[in-house]
Amino acid sequence: MSQPTRRARAERARATRRPRRRRIVTVLVVFVVVAALVGGAAWWRLDGNISRLDISSALSQDRPTPVDADPTNILLIGSDTRVGQGTGDGATVQGARSDTTLIAHLSGDRKHVTVVSIPRDSMVPIPPNCDAKVPKQQWPVQQFNAAFSMGGPACLINTIEANTGVFINHFAVVDFNGFKGMVDALGGVPVCTPVAIDDRRAHLKLAAGRHVLDGTQALGYVRVRYTEGDGSDLGRIKRQQAFLSSIVQEATRTSLLLRPDKLYGFLDAATRSLTTDEDMGLGTMRDLATSVQDVGIKNVAFVTVPVQAYAKDANRVEWTPAAETLWTKIRTDEPLDGPTKKPTPTASAAPLTVSPADVAGVAVVNATGVDGLAKQEADALKVQGFPLVTTASTAERTEGVLVQYSSGQEQAARTVAAAFPGSKTEKADGLGTTIRVVIGPGAKTVVELPNRLGSDPVPSPSISPPSPEKTIEARTADQDICA
Predict the structure, then answer these.
(1) Topology of 19-321+469-483 in CATH?
(2) How far apart are CA 155 and CA 152, in angstroms?
(3) Of the given ranges (55-69, 71-85, 457-471), which has the lowest mean pLDDT?
(4) Where in the chain is the domain with CATH 3.40.630.190?
(5) Apex CA 409: angle with CA 420 and CA 164, to 5°?
(6) Whether the model pTM is above 0.90
């Protein structure tokens, strides 16, 4: 046997043993591939399909500060009306409904992706008339999906950021009509229903078992609500998450990425259905896709915000304290089931502008029920130069750390918040120059500030805040569709 033949056989053997490259095949990843498969004219046409919206003037001036520059949070909105068409106002959309709201969190190290579903029946504070200049304490509690109907993406982003402390980098509104074309371009998507479905509103009738749905059927499937399960939005979210997992699996399994004709049809349907922020063009999507293309589907997790029945209306829900655990994970860029990362010394990427010595007062409030925790955290602040730190306790149970401040104390609050990794800041009336820190289950203890005073070491904590009572249940994209 000749040497070249032996080398060829050895190479084939190595290729056989080499593990198949894992990829997340989502709309973002597909954009990477299309750059190599279609010509420049096709690229520009696809980019031209996307509608863009400038909402910068309608966003709150008191937005969360990103923990760092690498994690990316993309708000995905499934709507029955394309934003910006016939509204006359690029930042709002009259009457359009957000049937589905997701936050896709791309971790800073690009090793995992978390997709959070927010139930549309959630009761949360929303800015009145979508005016984010009104202090949050005056926001009325309304049904979550009312924000998009009243004020489009800007109102929804203001609502989410104020209630979660999660900074939204980009948004994309997906018209459901385009969704059908994307499914058809895949050649259908497998689903599994444990019971028969006969929903006239969704125009869908299926026997129990496995099915491969075309675009029209798929649209009905993800919108079924009243004739399957308990009729709540939570049951529909579970079906949507299973369906999204199936799309990822199907796009990975099929030859879509190897067929330029089929790929272009998929992308044409996808881009025609998209409305995004001005910075979320095809080039940005390509760059994001490049950064996550090696994430395996087992590292894509779908999770729903933990909720319970709303006390004032049994047909609505409210977020439980465990929801703060989820938002803390997103804010601090941690995987849902992974170990807690070593705290970083600052909660903000921007330099701190207020010295600890210039913070008039800090009130540390223990909301865990664990004796001695407030004093321990107060001592760790004092050693770093905060001149006046008091302690108290409360029966309220908020998870993580909430830093509250009154008007004019924003920068002082940033300095205090930087000592508590993953903390959330909130404007509150009546505090004067005092910064109030509420420490709840799941909080992280004080770390050393970059602009601290003095040289004495920060005391090592001997008391740890308790873990949140509830765990976060997640579905990974590699699970069987019937699971």
Answers:
(1) Aminopeptidase (3.40.630)
(2) 6
(3) 71-85
(4) 19-321+469-483
(5) 50
(6) no
